[in-house]
Amino acid sequence: MTGLIWVLMLPLAVQSSGDQPALSASEIMARVAANQDRAEKMRAEYVYQQHIYVVTRHTNGKLAREETADYIVTPTPDGTKKELVRIDGRYWHKGKYLEFRGTPVPESDSLDGDLVDDFRNDLTRDKTKDGIGRDLFPLTSEEQKRYGFELAGAETFQGHRVYRIKFRPADKHDLTWAGEALIDAEEFQPVSVATRLSRKIPFVVRTLLGTDLPGIGFSVQYRRFDEGIWFPTSFGTEFRLHAVFFINRDISISLENSAFERANVQSKILQYEPTK
Fold it and tell me: Is residue 264 over pLDDT 80?
Protein backbone atom coordinates (compact mmCIF):
# COMPACT_ATOMS: atom_id res chain seq x y z
CA MET A 1 0.00 0.00 0.00
CA THR A 2 2.85 2.36 0.87
CA GLY A 3 4.41 1.68 -2.54
CA LEU A 4 1.14 2.48 -4.32
CA ILE A 5 0.79 5.81 -2.48
CA TRP A 6 4.38 6.69 -3.41
CA VAL A 7 3.65 6.01 -7.10
CA LEU A 8 0.51 8.15 -6.99
CA MET A 9 2.36 11.02 -5.28
CA LEU A 10 5.35 10.94 -7.66
CA PRO A 11 3.93 13.41 -10.24
CA LEU A 12 3.30 15.96 -7.48
CA ALA A 13 6.82 15.49 -6.18
CA VAL A 14 8.28 16.05 -9.65
CA GLN A 15 6.24 19.24 -10.15
CA SER A 16 7.23 20.61 -6.76
CA SER A 17 10.91 20.03 -7.55
CA GLY A 18 10.96 23.05 -9.88
CA ASP A 19 9.03 22.25 -13.06
CA GLN A 20 6.69 25.09 -14.00
CA PRO A 21 3.52 24.81 -16.06
CA ALA A 22 4.16 25.64 -19.70
CA LEU A 23 3.33 29.21 -20.62
CA SER A 24 1.17 30.04 -23.61
CA ALA A 25 2.22 32.55 -26.25
CA SER A 26 -0.30 35.05 -24.90
CA GLU A 27 1.04 34.69 -21.35
CA ILE A 28 4.62 35.14 -22.54
CA MET A 29 3.77 38.23 -24.56
CA ALA A 30 1.70 39.70 -21.71
CA ARG A 31 4.85 39.58 -19.55
CA VAL A 32 6.86 41.11 -22.40
CA ALA A 33 4.29 43.90 -22.72
CA ALA A 34 4.43 44.68 -18.99
CA ASN A 35 8.23 44.77 -19.14
CA GLN A 36 8.23 46.93 -22.27
CA ASP A 37 5.80 49.40 -20.75
CA ARG A 38 8.14 49.77 -17.76
CA ALA A 39 11.24 49.75 -19.95
CA GLU A 40 9.97 52.67 -22.03
CA LYS A 41 10.10 54.86 -18.94
CA MET A 42 13.48 53.51 -17.83
CA ARG A 43 15.04 54.03 -21.27
CA ALA A 44 14.24 57.70 -20.94
CA GLU A 45 17.09 57.92 -18.42
CA TYR A 46 19.76 57.15 -21.02
CA VAL A 47 21.88 59.17 -23.42
CA TYR A 48 23.39 57.28 -26.34
CA GLN A 49 24.86 57.54 -29.83
CA GLN A 50 22.99 56.54 -32.96
CA HIS A 51 24.64 55.70 -36.28
CA ILE A 52 22.41 55.47 -39.37
CA TYR A 53 23.37 54.42 -42.89
CA VAL A 54 20.89 54.69 -45.79
CA VAL A 55 21.60 53.78 -49.41
CA THR A 56 19.49 53.81 -52.56
CA ARG A 57 20.40 51.82 -55.65
CA HIS A 58 18.96 51.44 -59.10
CA THR A 59 17.43 48.01 -59.71
CA ASN A 60 20.52 47.07 -61.74
CA GLY A 61 22.59 47.46 -58.55
CA LYS A 62 24.19 50.82 -59.39
CA LEU A 63 24.55 53.14 -56.39
CA ALA A 64 22.34 56.23 -56.61
CA ARG A 65 22.99 57.82 -53.20
CA GLU A 66 24.31 56.93 -49.76
CA GLU A 67 24.36 58.91 -46.54
CA THR A 68 25.81 58.24 -43.09
CA ALA A 69 24.51 60.22 -40.13
CA ASP A 70 25.54 60.22 -36.47
CA TYR A 71 23.43 61.58 -33.63
CA ILE A 72 23.57 62.10 -29.90
CA VAL A 73 20.20 61.00 -28.51
CA THR A 74 19.05 62.57 -25.24
CA PRO A 75 15.81 62.06 -23.29
CA THR A 76 12.96 64.58 -23.24
CA PRO A 77 9.64 64.48 -21.33
CA ASP A 78 7.76 63.08 -24.35
CA GLY A 79 10.44 61.03 -26.11
CA THR A 80 13.96 61.75 -27.29
CA LYS A 81 15.85 64.59 -28.92
CA LYS A 82 18.42 63.85 -31.61
CA GLU A 83 21.33 66.17 -32.23
CA LEU A 84 23.01 65.64 -35.58
CA VAL A 85 26.77 65.63 -35.08
CA ARG A 86 27.94 64.31 -38.43
CA ILE A 87 26.55 63.62 -41.87
CA ASP A 88 28.37 62.68 -45.05
CA GLY A 89 27.82 60.67 -48.19
CA ARG A 90 28.01 60.61 -51.95
CA TYR A 91 25.61 60.70 -54.89
CA TRP A 92 25.61 60.25 -58.65
CA HIS A 93 25.57 63.53 -60.56
CA LYS A 94 26.19 64.10 -64.28
CA GLY A 95 28.24 60.98 -64.87
CA LYS A 96 30.27 60.87 -61.65
CA TYR A 97 30.00 60.49 -57.88
CA LEU A 98 30.23 63.61 -55.76
CA GLU A 99 31.10 63.36 -52.07
CA PHE A 100 29.84 65.70 -49.38
CA ARG A 101 30.24 66.31 -45.67
CA GLY A 102 28.09 68.40 -43.36
CA THR A 103 24.97 70.45 -43.90
CA PRO A 104 23.25 71.67 -45.94
CA VAL A 105 23.05 68.32 -47.72
CA PRO A 106 23.39 68.84 -51.49
CA GLU A 107 20.44 67.97 -53.75
CA SER A 108 18.31 67.05 -50.75
CA ASP A 109 15.17 67.70 -52.79
CA SER A 110 16.16 65.25 -55.55
CA LEU A 111 14.42 61.88 -55.79
CA ASP A 112 17.16 59.97 -53.97
CA GLY A 113 17.94 62.80 -51.55
CA ASP A 114 14.30 62.93 -50.53
CA LEU A 115 14.04 59.12 -50.20
CA VAL A 116 17.13 58.91 -47.99
CA ASP A 117 15.97 61.74 -45.75
CA ASP A 118 12.42 60.37 -45.44
CA PHE A 119 13.47 56.84 -44.56
CA ARG A 120 16.08 57.99 -42.08
CA ASN A 121 13.59 60.19 -40.25
CA ASP A 122 10.38 58.17 -40.60
CA LEU A 123 11.83 54.85 -39.46
CA THR A 124 13.68 56.31 -36.44
CA ARG A 125 11.15 58.60 -34.88
CA ASP A 126 12.02 61.11 -32.19
CA LYS A 127 9.00 60.25 -30.02
CA THR A 128 10.29 56.81 -29.00
CA LYS A 129 12.58 56.27 -26.02
CA ASP A 130 14.76 53.77 -27.89
CA GLY A 131 14.98 55.72 -31.15
CA ILE A 132 13.06 53.20 -33.29
CA GLY A 133 9.45 53.57 -34.44
CA ARG A 134 7.37 51.58 -31.95
CA ASP A 135 4.76 50.47 -34.48
CA LEU A 136 7.37 48.38 -36.33
CA PHE A 137 7.41 45.75 -33.58
CA PRO A 138 4.38 44.61 -31.47
CA LEU A 139 5.96 44.58 -28.01
CA THR A 140 4.13 47.10 -25.83
CA SER A 141 0.67 46.42 -24.42
CA GLU A 142 -0.88 49.01 -26.74
CA GLU A 143 0.67 47.52 -29.89
CA GLN A 144 -0.11 43.92 -28.88
CA LYS A 145 -3.85 44.57 -28.93
CA ARG A 146 -3.82 44.28 -32.71
CA TYR A 147 -1.94 40.97 -32.91
CA GLY A 148 -2.32 37.24 -32.41
CA PHE A 149 0.60 35.14 -31.13
CA GLU A 150 1.77 31.54 -31.48
CA LEU A 151 4.47 29.75 -29.49
CA ALA A 152 6.72 28.06 -32.04
CA GLY A 153 9.13 26.48 -29.54
CA ALA A 154 12.03 27.12 -27.18
CA GLU A 155 15.76 27.17 -27.97
CA THR A 156 19.11 28.68 -27.06
CA PHE A 157 20.18 31.82 -28.93
CA GLN A 158 23.45 33.65 -28.24
CA GLY A 159 23.65 32.13 -24.79
CA HIS A 160 20.04 32.95 -23.89
CA ARG A 161 17.26 30.46 -23.37
CA VAL A 162 14.50 31.93 -25.54
CA TYR A 163 10.94 31.39 -26.66
CA ARG A 164 10.26 31.68 -30.39
CA ILE A 165 7.00 33.57 -30.85
CA LYS A 166 5.24 34.03 -34.19
CA PHE A 167 2.88 36.96 -34.60
CA ARG A 168 0.31 38.12 -37.13
CA PRO A 169 -2.39 40.81 -37.13
CA ALA A 170 -5.51 39.64 -35.32
CA ASP A 171 -7.56 40.87 -38.28
CA LYS A 172 -6.29 38.97 -41.31
CA HIS A 173 -7.41 41.83 -43.55
CA ASP A 174 -5.05 44.30 -41.88
CA LEU A 175 -1.99 45.24 -43.91
CA THR A 176 0.65 45.50 -41.21
CA TRP A 177 3.54 43.44 -39.84
CA ALA A 178 3.93 39.71 -39.23
CA GLY A 179 7.02 37.83 -38.14
CA GLU A 180 8.88 36.21 -35.26
CA ALA A 181 10.31 37.36 -31.96
CA LEU A 182 12.85 35.63 -29.72
CA ILE A 183 11.97 36.31 -26.08
CA ASP A 184 14.40 35.79 -23.19
CA ALA A 185 12.87 33.00 -21.10
CA GLU A 186 14.09 34.41 -17.77
CA GLU A 187 13.55 38.14 -18.10
CA PHE A 188 10.78 38.13 -20.73
CA GLN A 189 12.53 40.75 -22.81
CA PRO A 190 12.97 40.70 -26.61
CA VAL A 191 16.32 39.39 -27.85
CA SER A 192 15.51 39.82 -31.55
CA VAL A 193 12.51 40.58 -33.73
CA ALA A 194 12.09 40.07 -37.48
CA THR A 195 9.10 41.29 -39.47
CA ARG A 196 7.62 41.19 -42.95
CA LEU A 197 4.39 42.53 -44.44
CA SER A 198 1.45 40.42 -43.28
CA ARG A 199 0.10 40.17 -46.83
CA LYS A 200 0.66 41.59 -50.30
CA ILE A 201 -0.16 45.18 -51.07
CA PRO A 202 -3.66 45.16 -52.62
CA PHE A 203 -3.81 44.40 -56.33
CA VAL A 204 -5.59 47.65 -57.14
CA VAL A 205 -2.77 49.65 -55.53
CA ARG A 206 -0.11 47.71 -57.40
CA THR A 207 -1.86 48.00 -60.77
CA LEU A 208 -3.65 51.36 -60.75
CA LEU A 209 -1.15 53.29 -58.63
CA GLY A 210 1.96 51.37 -59.64
CA THR A 211 3.11 51.01 -56.04
CA ASP A 212 4.65 47.95 -54.40
CA LEU A 213 7.22 47.09 -51.70
CA PRO A 214 8.44 43.57 -52.50
CA GLY A 215 10.62 42.05 -49.79
CA ILE A 216 10.06 44.75 -47.18
CA GLY A 217 10.70 43.71 -43.59
CA PHE A 218 12.76 44.70 -40.59
CA SER A 219 15.04 43.05 -38.06
CA VAL A 220 16.22 44.35 -34.71
CA GLN A 221 18.61 42.97 -32.09
CA TYR A 222 18.40 43.81 -28.38
CA ARG A 223 21.01 43.72 -25.61
CA ARG A 224 20.75 43.81 -21.83
CA PHE A 225 22.40 46.80 -20.15
CA ASP A 226 20.97 46.68 -16.65
CA GLU A 227 18.24 44.96 -14.71
CA GLY A 228 15.05 45.50 -16.69
CA ILE A 229 16.88 47.59 -19.31
CA TRP A 230 17.21 46.06 -22.76
CA PHE A 231 17.97 48.43 -25.63
CA PRO A 232 17.72 47.79 -29.37
CA THR A 233 21.34 47.93 -30.52
CA SER A 234 21.00 47.20 -34.23
CA PHE A 235 18.28 47.53 -36.81
CA GLY A 236 18.25 46.75 -40.51
CA THR A 237 16.12 46.40 -43.61
CA GLU A 238 16.52 45.89 -47.35
CA PHE A 239 13.66 46.08 -49.83
CA ARG A 240 12.64 47.21 -53.30
CA LEU A 241 10.47 50.29 -53.77
CA HIS A 242 8.13 50.64 -56.75
CA ALA A 243 6.06 53.82 -56.51
CA VAL A 244 3.73 55.61 -58.92
CA PHE A 245 5.22 53.75 -61.90
CA PHE A 246 8.45 55.76 -62.28
CA ILE A 247 10.24 55.25 -58.92
CA ASN A 248 12.23 52.01 -58.82
CA ARG A 249 14.89 51.72 -56.15
CA ASP A 250 16.49 49.15 -53.87
CA ILE A 251 16.68 50.60 -50.35
CA SER A 252 19.02 49.53 -47.53
CA ILE A 253 18.92 50.95 -44.01
CA SER A 254 21.07 50.04 -41.03
CA LEU A 255 21.11 51.57 -37.56
CA GLU A 256 23.34 51.06 -34.52
CA ASN A 257 22.80 52.37 -31.00
CA SER A 258 25.89 52.48 -28.76
CA ALA A 259 27.75 54.28 -25.93
CA PHE A 260 24.81 54.18 -23.52
CA GLU A 261 25.11 56.29 -20.39
CA ARG A 262 22.56 57.04 -17.72
CA ALA A 263 21.59 60.72 -17.83
CA ASN A 264 21.21 62.48 -14.48
CA VAL A 265 22.18 65.70 -12.79
CA GLN A 266 25.74 64.54 -12.19
CA SER A 267 26.37 62.97 -15.59
CA LYS A 268 27.72 64.91 -18.52
CA ILE A 269 26.63 64.60 -22.13
CA LEU A 270 28.75 62.15 -24.08
CA GLN A 271 31.45 63.40 -26.35
CA TYR A 272 30.81 62.25 -29.88
CA GLU A 273 32.69 59.12 -30.89
CA PRO A 274 32.24 58.09 -34.54
CA THR A 275 31.14 54.50 -35.14
CA LYS A 276 33.87 52.47 -36.78
Answer: no
